[in-house]
């Protein structure tokens, strides 16, 4: 297994539980819409978040990681905030306390006005564009590369603020696919001049890597360890 001496923390990712937009088959990707309370978790999603929290707690115990070393960093969207809150409750961590941190850079990828509040059946159109050119933006929306930029900022912020922590990143399908793609790729970088996260991310910021982010897709409520 590739080592990660350039990272100060361990990372898990968690896609939000099944949301009301998921149930309705709607794309809700703008910050304005995504933070509306009406778009939080569906009841099934609350159950998924609780199960994910229990699984995360089990993994913490198996790795002898004390709860005081846990940090939950989450997107400000209602569905991710709701998920993070449920997980914090399972771990008995105060959600308003210093161990839980909202980060706008972890928000959903904005797919643009041509997709917003329309059927999720349109997702394949975006992913086909990503595979063809991850640097091309859907009209009015974010490209894969745009999301990479803010995820790199989020990672840098977490690495600066925390050390020796187990960080749970609670976000959305596309951002977490892209984040996993980045982290899996940076672990393989062997160039001697790439001794930090930022330089490694720039090295892997290429078409043949970013265009494959769908291979790291997560189900709603799915927990995955990405950096140990």
Automatic annotation (TrEMBL):
Pfam families from the UniProt entry: His_Phos_1 (PF00300)
InterPro entries: His_Pase_superF_clade-1, His_PPase_superfam
Highest taxon of source: Eukaryota
CDD domains: HP_PGM_like (cd07067)
PANTHER family the UniProt entry points to: PHOSPHOGLYCERATE MUTASE FAMILY PROTEIN
UniProt-recorded name of the protein: Phosphoglycerate mutase family protein
Organism encoding this protein: Citrus clementina
């Amino acid at each position: 297994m590739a080592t990660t001496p350039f990272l100060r923390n361990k990372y898990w990712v968690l896609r939000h539980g099944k949301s009301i937009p998921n149930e309705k088959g709607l794309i809700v990707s703008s910050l304005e819409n995504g933070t509306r309370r009406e778009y939080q978790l569906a009841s099934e999603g609350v159950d998924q978040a609780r199960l994910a929290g229990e699984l995360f707690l089990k993994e913490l115990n198996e790795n002898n990681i004390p709860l005081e070393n846990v940090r939950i960093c989450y997107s400000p969207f209602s569905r991710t905030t709701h998920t993070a809150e449920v997980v914090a409750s399972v771990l008995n961590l105060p959600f308003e306390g210093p161990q839980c941190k909202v980060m706008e850079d972890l928000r959903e990828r904005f797919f643009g006005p041509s997709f917003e509040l329309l059927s999720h059946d349109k997702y394949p159109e975006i992913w086909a564009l990503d595979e063809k050119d991850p640097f091309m933006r859907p009209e009015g929306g974010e490209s894969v590369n745009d999301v990479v930029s803010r995820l790199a900022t989020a990672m840098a912020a977490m690495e600066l603020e925390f050390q020796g922590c187990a960080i749970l990143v609670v976000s959305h399908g596309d951002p977490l696919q892209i984040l996993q793609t980045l982290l899996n790729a940076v672990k393989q970088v062997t160039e001697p001049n790439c001794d930090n996260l930022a330089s490694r991310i720039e090295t892997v910021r290429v078409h043949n890597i970013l265009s494959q982010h769908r291979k790291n897709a997560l189900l709603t409520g799915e927990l995955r360890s990405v950096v140990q």
